[in-house]
Amino acid sequence: MSPVTSAAAKPAAHPREDALLSAIEGRADELVALTRDLIRFPTVNPPGDAYRPCAEYLGERLRKRGFAVEYVRAEGSPGDTDEHPRINVIARWEGASPGPCVHFNSHIDVVEAGDGWTVPPFEGVVKDGRVYGRGACDMKGGLAASVIAVEALIDSGVPLPGALEISGTADEESGGYGGVAWLAERGWFSKPRVDHVIIPEPLNVDRVCIGHRGVWWSEITTEGRIAHGSMPFLGDNAIRHMGAFIDELERRIYPQLGNLDTAMPVVPEGARTPTLNINSLHGGQPDVTGTGLPAPVVADSCRIVLDRRLLIEEDLEEVKAGIHNLLDGLAQTRPGFRYKIRDLFEVRPSMTEPDRPVVRFTCEAVEQVLDKPAQIVCSPGTYDQKHIDRIGRLRDCIAYGPGILDLAHQPDEYVGIDDMVSSAKVMALSAYALLTRQA
Ligand SMILES: [Zn+2]
Questions:
Q1: Which of 287, 321, 347 is the last residue of a domain?
Q2: Which tens digits make up the pLDDT trace of 160-219?
Q3: Tens of pLDDT along 5-60?
Q4: CB neighbours of 373 closer than 8 A, spacing ≥ 6?
Q5: Domain check: are 50 and 194 in the same one?
Q6: Are residues 81 and 195 in the same domain?
Q7: Are 402 and 200 in contact (CB under 8 A)?
Q8: Ligand 1 center from residue 108 Cα (angstroms)
Q9: Of 301, 327, 347, which residue is a domain's last?
């Protein structure tokens, strides 16, 4: 399938827009400094470290520039404690007259640094035109770009109708329940407060992301009966039962996954079909002594976690039924087969329409800044758009930001400085068009 591109002809730059673009160019150093400052807050999730200082740093910066700033703690959300409060910051700048509201939403949390780094992960090292650090690409570089874009737009002095909002939200990496989901349930991501949302996730500087695939994680446990390992015929091995189930997956589920045509332009193209991963498999007794010699017994339980990704053409209940049917079939045909299945996590696929103003104007801005057509894509994994769509009932939402998707969560994560500047320009032009050019 060929990439979907925006068909709009290259728009002519307006002198006012040219001035805005050079103003952003002039703020490149400030953009780098802001990104480095944000990386220095080690907002690792789990457990949710340094959320408050990071949110306050962002809020304080914007308050000084005339934004009304609110801090919202997602009290009682998963992981929220006095030690690790789920603090979100939302800053709003009111324009000169009534009009739409354009909101830039970034998550402030990052995943743990992990091993394999050649630079310190929380210092914001600048090298070879890049800023390195955990969260540089996912997504503090995008957050910084949106802040510079909005500030430059406001400072341009052009009378702007409507409102501009910037939020820094918690817990995206763990599902967004203490962040965007919490706020969406309380009206922060719905009309009439907000009309358009841009999420600066790292989907590459020339791509406009209109949605993401869905997810279903399930835990399946097979049960057996413990016995001495020298006399397995006296027990019933749960690992062998699980082997039979995995064999069914191989024979009956995996071959079907590639057969679906989708309207979702997912990147990379390999993810343009449903996918199924076995995230983990654990069976038998744990090796408690660390000697590599677990107890010599017949395994009485075996557990796997399945990670099924869905396209918009699929029905989550049907997908679940397919797995339940396999298990029920085994229970009927395989002596001793007993199982339990539990849903761990689920998200329905989400995709907005490519003709929405937020998509059209952002594509137009990409073309204007980068001199090439934008590619309209969907993300293989989920991000907070699901909550804005399902809970906030706001369809006008995209992800657009600097940074290379593949680098997210890796060691030596970085964001290119040129890409950050370009994406800030795109965000400013898009916001300007959304505020001023809509009927
Ligand atoms: Zn992210």
A1: 347
A2: 999 999 999 999 999 999 999 999 999 999 999 999 999 999 999 999 999 999 999 999
A3: 444 445 556 778 999 999 999 999 999 999 999 999 999 999 999 999 999 999 99
A4: 5, 6, 363, 366, 367
A5: yes
A6: yes
A7: yes
A8: 9
A9: 347
Same domain, 342 and 362: no
Cα 331 to ligand 1 centre (Å):
41
Give the CATH number for residue 342.
3.30.70.360
135 lies in the same domain as 15 = yes
CA dist., res. 202 & res. 401, Å (int):
5
Distances (CA, A) of 365 to 10, 196, 337, 424: 9, 15, 58, 10
- Amino acid 328 reads D
**How many Å lie between the centroid of ligand 1 and the Cα of residue 201?**
5
pTM of structure = 0.90
* Res 1: pLDDT: 37
Residues 6+ apart with CB under 8 A from 187: 193
Q: How many domains does the chain have?
A: 2
Whether the per-residue pLDDT at 3 is higher than 70: the answer is no
Q: Are residues 279 and 190 in the same domain?
A: no
**Catalytic site residues?**
109, 172
For the chain, helix, strand, coil in percent to 5 are 35, 25, 40
Q: What is the pLDDT of residues 229-243, one digit of tens each?
A: 999 999 999 999 999
| 138 in Cβ contact with 110 (< 8 Å) | yes
Once rounded to an integer, what is the mean pLDDT over residues 268-281? 95
Residue 7: per-residue pLDDT: 47
Asked if 256 and 301 touch (Cβ cutoff 8 Å), the reply is: no
Q: How far is the CA of 178 from the centre of ligand 1 (A)?
A: 15
C-alpha of residue 139 to centroid of ligand 1, in Å: 5
Do residues 208 and 218 both lie within one domain?
A: no
Residues 246 and 324 in one domain: yes
| Structural domain harbouring 241 | 214-347
Residues around ion ligand 1, judged by CB within 5 A, are 138-139, 201
Residue ranges of alpha helices (H) inside 303-416 are 316-333, 357-370, 385-390
My answer on whether 286 and 374 are in the same domain is: no
CA–centroid distance, residue 250 to ligand 1 (Å): 32
Ligand 1 center to 246 CA (angstroms): 32
**CA 395–ligand 1 middle distance (angstroms):** 20
Structure tokens at 179: 């962040």
The CATH number covering residue 363 comes to 3.40.630.10
